[in-house]
Amino acid sequence: MNYTSYDVAVMNYPLFDKREDVSQAAEKFFKAPPVEKRAEVPLYIHVPFCTSLCDFCIYHRNLASQPERIEAYVDALLREIEMYAGEPYTCQLPIGSVFIGGGTPTVLTRDQLIRILDRLHQSFNLKGCDITVECHTQNANLEKLIALREHGVTRVSTGIQTLQHKARRDLHMAGSPDALIQWLAMAKSIGFSGVSADLMYGLPGVSQEEFLQDLDQAIKLQLSHLSVYKTAVFAYTKLYREQQKSMSPPAALNETEMRETFYQAHDKLMTHGYELISAQEYGREKGLIRFWDLTYDGYGDNLSFGPSSFGYINGYCYQNESELDSYVKKLQGRVLPVSRISRRITSKQLMERAMVMGFRRGAVSLFRFADTFGYDLKQIFSEVIHRHIKQGYVTAVGDQLILTRKGLYEQGKVSVDYMQSIFQGISNLKRKLCIGSHEMP
Ligand code: SF4
């Protein structure tokens, strides 16, 4: 496996710009005239702790070995929520969906989780909002799950990734396959409106057949949602370092097998009553969780709290401090913990953002684009749309441009082609470097 696609890296648009002054973040977010308004906004919280660290993981996380650091994080997070909620611009945003992820939120104690949920309810209007918490089977016990349910959580999710014993052990994934299945049954019995799981294809040591067996087993559990992620090995992961060192790394799927595995998984999910709810997520019921729909909407704000999280407010993309101590220190000084920021979005980039993000949820609406911007998107992006249709990535259905199966597999590439105002005339390699670092050339 290697850098085969942009899938993971297209997180936001426009890209960050080192020349922008992050100390002015609050001024930029809250004092500039509003760029746009829309009905609902997603809110994400990143919990950067896990009890053990899986070799392939690309997310920002720390070992949950020091309770005092976790407590300092919770205090800082509560202050971050309070600071945003204290601003007229953000306190009025109608929150449509909340996702508490990471890392593993359930490494927090029951009381810490309740404090966070209570602070969210006190700070924003969450009426009618779906709230998801990512769980780990080793620490999301019955008592915590009941507390989550009682405090308004509507859906819980866990990362299965693989049910293959050997691969789990080799990749340092905590929890046995049996414990995962039992945990999912327990979570379903509590009365959440959704229980879901993630699976990864292309993990080293897991064949195509084994992955598809795992998927069959997950389908049998009748979960409300299943996410299917392609394994991408990034240079900062332990897996990458191990692969560089090893004379005989475990077998991994090649690009053709990866593509074929995704196609088979997609078809299987479709024939078992799942619908596509974003380019990587499948649900039995549309609308049960709207987090991806709102996050990849591309037409408005994304609130994001916690270390390393990515957000978008009033025309600025931002990322928070990744390093825990820097994040905590800034908040102790009542400073927004922003480490990177984009330039303010231009009117051309607003249209590009609608496409870049829109294809992350699998489709863009021609009507909505025309209604918002007053232009026909087929004319604005005529060259790239024709090319994508010819290449078999995109098809036109009614009012929408929809990713085909091939387009879903290559969604990152499709999205990048709409970043025209910053990428025109630069090489593919340079594009990849910019996307990898999320920064302007
Ligand atoms: S439990 Fe999840 S977030 Fe934590 S290291 Fe493993 S894959 Fe990453």
Automatic annotation (TrEMBL):
All copies of domain Radical SAM core, residue ranges: 35-275
One function term, GO molecular function aspect: 4 iron, 4 sulfur cluster binding
Pfam families: HemN_C, Radical_SAM
SMART domains: Elp3
PROSITE patterns found in the cross-reference section: RADICAL_SAM
Keywords: Iron, Iron-sulfur, Metal-binding, S-adenosyl-L-methionine
Gene Ontology CC entries for this record: cytoplasm
Highest taxon of the lineage: Bacteria
Gene Ontology biological process terms in this record: porphyrin-containing compound biosynthetic process
The protein's name in its UniProt record: Heme chaperone HemW
Annotated organism of origin: Bianquea renquensis
